[in-house]
Amino acid sequence: MIKVGIVGGTGYTGSELARLVLAHPALELACITSRQDAGQPVASQWPQFAARSELRFSAPDPATLTACDLVFFATPHGTAMAMAPGLLEAGVKVVDLSADFRLRSIPEFERWYGMPHTAAELLEEAVYGLPELNRERIRRARLVACPGCYPTATILGFAPLLEHGLLDPRTLVADAKSGVSGAGRKLAMGVLYGEVAENFKAYGVDGHRHLPEIAQVLAECAGAPLGLCFVPHLLPMFRGLQATLYATVTRDPGDLVRLFRERYADHPFIFVHDADGVPETRAVRGSNACHIGLRYFPEQGRVVVFSVIDNLVKGAAGQALQNANLMCGLAEDAGLPGDPFFP
Ligand SMILES: NC(=O)c1ccc[n+]([C@@H]2O[C@H](COP(=O)([O-])OP(=O)(O)OC[C@H]3O[C@@H](n4cnc5c(N)ncnc54)[C@H](OP(=O)(O)O)[C@@H]3O)[C@@H](O)[C@H]2O)c1
To answer: Quick check: CB of 10 below 6 Å from ligand 1?
Structure first.
């Protein structure tokens, strides 16, 4: 069995990782950390795991983590960059769910995340962990930077069109909505039930941290700088994320469904709806799938793409496990649910 550790085991993505790792045929959960709950049984926070694990949370101690073959960081930005260099030095593979290794420009990282980057020497080596774009590089990687949830849905929806030169790259609009678990398991006024329930609003309108990440990756797909308008919204539900994507085309894009099905033919988690299909979040709840719907409006010269994921699975823990599978030479879909929790 391959021994894995989870740093940040009391958060939402950490618990989702624990759920997936505990059911995985080739991975053993050797260590799961929490500074607040060190010494407590994992079941004290997550009773759903009581029958499958007697593990206790431990402090994020490098000596314990170096006994693992691979460590996931399900922590806020700043933690992985402090610990990854020592783990890599000790021969441990690292999959980071935070933003520490996503942006290649240090000034951009420091501008958006408000802290100095302390492991800049690893940025060139880190592979952006979107298997539908970088599968072969991920297989060879020691350090993978998992994409953010909004970037995952947005990039998967725009990439095939940009790769074929079908979009005017100055006209991209990503109108995106996420369930409240996207904000993490923390005490904050904006994510209280009483604030979120029966409400719907945009946030981060004047600049969201996922904007430079999406722009970096899609500019590479387009081979040109982008004009991207990205507006996230908070949905009154727990899981699920939809990016509705708009852009002006450079020419008639032809059969969009065929284009996307051919692009993702070899990628088991991407499902492209028929031409009249409209994806919905409940169809991906708890699964690692991304569902895509497509429309072309010739009279406006515009395409609309609907890209739907579970933010905690394909947008975080599931994608992290997909990357870990590739890095460990396992089947890409090992231990990953394709089916949703619905109904
Ligand atoms: N939620 C999502 O949908 C989503 C999607 C994609 C990516 N992400 C990214 O994934 C990461 C985790 O997100 P989350 O939503 O799971 O966060 P969360 O619910 O707030 O959990 C954070 C976890 O990190 C631990 N932690 C905090 N500071 C730490 C430190 N300095 N050293 C070690 N452990 C620390 C916390 O436990 P202790 O304080 O007890 O140690 C907790 O277990 C974030 O970077 C987030 O941006 C989240």
So the answer is: yes
Q: Please report the sign of the dihedral spanned by the C-alpha atoms of residue 318, residue 7, residue 155, residue 233.
A: positive
Whose Cα sits closest to atom 17 in ligand 1? Answer: 184
Per-residue pLDDT of 38-86, as tens digits, reads: 999 999 999 999 999 899 999 999 999 999 999 999 999 999 999 999 9
Ligand 1 center to residue 84 CA distance, Å?
Answer: 16
Angle made by CA atoms 324, 328, 332, in degrees to the nearest 5: 60
Contacts of 99 (CB under 8 A, 6+ apart): 77, 109, 112, 113, 145, 148, 209, 213
Residue 63: burial class (beta carbons within 10 Å; 0-12, 13-18, 19+): exposed
User: Atom 4 in ligand 1: which residue has the minimum CA distance?
Assistant: 182
306 pLDDT tier (thresholds 50, 70, 90): very high
- The answer to whether residue 328 is catalytic is no
- To the nearest 10 degrees (0 to 180), the angle between helices 318-327 and 131-139 is 30
Of the candidates 265, 264, 255, 263, the residue with the CA atom closest to the CA atom of residue 303: 255
